[in-house]
Amino acid sequence: MLNRTDAGLSRRGYRWAIYTILFLVMGAGITLSHVMSNAASAIHRAAQPSVSDALSESRPHDLPALLERHELIGHYVDRIAKLVYWFDLLALGTAVILLYHVWVRFRVEDRLAHQASHEPLTGLGHRRAFEQRLANLHGAPHSLLLASIERFDRISSAYGHEFADHLTIGISARLSKVARQFEADVFRLDGGGFLLLYRHELGSPRFNDAVAALREQMTVPFVHRAHEVFPLLSLGAAEYPRHGSTPAQLLRNVVAASQSARRLGNGLLVTYSEELNAQAERRLDLEAQIVRAVERNELLLHFQPQQRLSDGSLSGFEALLRWRRNGLLVSPMEFIPAAEESGQVVAIGDWVLEEACRQIRRLQENNTPTSVAVNISPRQFLHPSFAAKIEDLLSKTGIDASLLELEITEGAVMEQTESAIGLLKHLRGLGLKLAIDDFGTGYSSLGYLKRFPIDKLKIDQSFIRQLGHTTQDAAIVRAVIDLGCNLEMCVTAEGVETLAQREWLQRAGCDQIQGYLYGKPMPATEALAFARARWVAGCGEPA
Description:
Helix content: 55-70%
Radius of gyration: 41 Å
Structural class: alpha/beta
Largest sheet: 8 strands, mixed, barrel
Distance between the termini: 79 Å
Shape: elongated
Number of strands: 16
């Protein structure tokens, strides 16, 4: 069976055969016309002596007949020559028309063949073209790099598809420039993904130089219609044939490397290893199993207490999600990202809110009314029906709305700032408490922060862990505490595990702490007992 390359060569040979036949027809017509013209002239010249001899030997009364016969013969010869000449012209015209139509047909076939292996936006080869190129390598070592535009979907939704198309075209031009410099082929895999096939082994100096040149190209901002974007590329690498001898295997492995790079962020390069596929399979298994986790009652909440530093009393709990699968607890670091990617985080988040409200009601019925904080994922926060669900939940459970605290990340409120401000004000109007979780790890604008109706800032444990070891972390923590104090917001430090950390935070003016020093996450029944044994106070005012 012929491959596409052989078929292309066969098609080109077929075309030249048609062109040759048409040119032969045209040449034959022209030659025949020329031959007939020369033949007529030759007949006239050959007949002239015979006519002269006949005229000299003829009697006078025969001359008119001879002349008339001679003229008639010449007339028919000329007529036949003209008919042949016009026939040749007709054949020649027909051949020209056929030649034009054949040329147009071949042009259309070439265009269709190009479209079949190239995508229209950038003109780069697509997946089929890559598969054809790989089939012609015959085992020669090559390096494959998958470059994916980070935040491509967010850019497209924020600035529109036209901007995204111009960004794609611009990045494809930069990649093509680097590819020409390092003898590589460029293909477009999907919306924001590009494949670069290098003729160098993975990790070779030439390949490393190519990656460096690629990153250098991305340092130049992309500007279109007053919008400026600094594109980052997540880079996944694999080697042919070591990491895959078929297109399917190689693409599967390089995609696994690229997805790992995307999760790490910051335009990192990740080289394929078998562990990446194992991780991907585990994540897919988690995504499939977490869909049924709610139905199977495998999810549960633990509650970690928070302490008020001014008097050492209990100020509230944070609800932390746990998943007991096959009798073992699955780490939240594993299943929370899987839930976010699969889209199940919204349904799970709704379940967490319901369970947290039930725990608040139990605390109220136990005469220990204590606030419970619930983490809200960005996808859940930005869901159109989020506010309506909160209202329905408050109505159904009948709890005191001020005892429900929603912890929202910086990224969630900064993604759609104006709509987020409106939603936060609406939630605040319902009586809920609002907190910014992991403050300092995102990219919040302080100008926007003062517009947010926020009650609490939570300092991420990564800053608390190094207190006393690095002056930079101490300076950041002190700055957040001062900021919260000036904006009349409560400040809670997460991950407090030592007395030294607690004393430092107390001296710095921190309001609350949360961590193993005060209490580990505990089941709902233990949290009820914990609250019953302590005086309950809120942040800044009695609960």
